[in-house]
Design a protein that fits this description.
The chain is an alpha+beta fold and 99 residues long. The protein has a single domain, classed as UreE, C-terminal domain (Alpha-Beta Plaits), CATH 3.30.70.790. 28% of the residues lie in helices and 25% in strands. The strands form 2 sheets. The chain has a 3-stranded antiparallel β-sheet with strand order 3-5-4, with helices on one face. It has a two-stranded antiparallel sheet with strand order 1-2. A hairpin with a 2-residue loop joins strand 1 and strand 2. The longest helix is centred in the middle third of the chain and has 14 residues. The termini are far apart.
Length: 99
């Protein structure tokens, strides 16, 4: 059995750039099956410079591309309030996941 190596911080794709989130956390902004909504929010968050990632996007392979499993829009925890404000300005505050 080969020796194990320590696991480094998780790597995420934020705004098209790979970054290590050393000690950072992400928070769910919302979840949806609506690919158009995801694309739109992705564009406005990118334009505003908010660090975000769409999770579970590759689950379509498992579900047969039916769009049954919701995708999650995650943002850096310290930018969550800013992301919520941006969605409110775009009249999309109703999609934000309530804690």
């Amino acid at each position: 059995m080969p020796p194990t190596r320590p696991v480094k911080s998780p790597q995420f794709l934020f705004n098209g750039k790979a970054q290590f989130l050393q000690g950072s956390r992400v928070k769910e902004l919302f979840r949806t099956n609506d690919a158009v909504l995801l694309s739109y929010v992705d564009a406005i968050l990118s334009e505003a410079g908010v660090s975000h990632v769409i999770m579970d996007g590759n689950m379509s392979i498992m579900e047969g591309s039916l769009g049954v499993l919701p995708r999650r829009m995650m943002v850096a925890e310290d930018e969550f309030t800013q992301a919520c404000r941006i969605l409110k300005d775009a009249d999309l505050d109703h999609v934000v996941t309530q804690d």
